[in-house]
Amino acid sequence: MVKIRLTRTGKTHSASYRIVIADQRSPRDGRFIEAIGHYDPNSKELKVDAEAAKKWLANGAQPTPTTKALLKKAGVID
C-alpha cells in the first residue's frame, strides 16, 4: 500500500520533515516515490503541493494521522 507520510530531516534538536509518498514497507527515512511538501514544526512553516496530494489521494494513497492533520491544515482535505 502507498502511504503519505513524513520523513525526518534537519539537525539533532532542530528537526524538519518532508511530506512524501512512499511504500508502507520502506523505512521512515528510506526510499520514497515523490516528495510533495515540507513541514518545519519550529517555525510552523507548511508547504504542500496540493495538486500532487489530491492526485495521490485519488489514486488510493492513505495518509498517516499526522499527515492527514497537516493536509487538512493546508486545505487539501476537507
Structure description:
The protein has 78 residues and is α+β, with helices and mostly antiparallel strands. It has a single domain (2-74), classed as S16 Ribosomal Protein, Chain: A, CATH 3.30.1320. The protein has helices at residues 50-58, 65-74; strands at residues 2-11, 14-23, 34-40, 45-48, 62-63. The protein has a five-stranded mixed sheet with strand order 4-3-2-1-5. The model has no long low-confidence stretch (mean pLDDT 94).
Shape: globular
CATH superfamily heading: Ribosomal protein S16
Strand content: 35-45%
Biggest beta sheet summary = 5 strands, mixed
* DSSP E strands, number: 5
The strand line-up of the biggest sheet is 4-3-2-1-5
Distance between the termini: 23 Å
Write the CATH architecture name.
2-Layer Sandwich
CATH class: Alpha Beta
Low-confidence stretches: none
Estimate percent helicity. Answer: 10-25%
- Name the structural class: alpha+beta
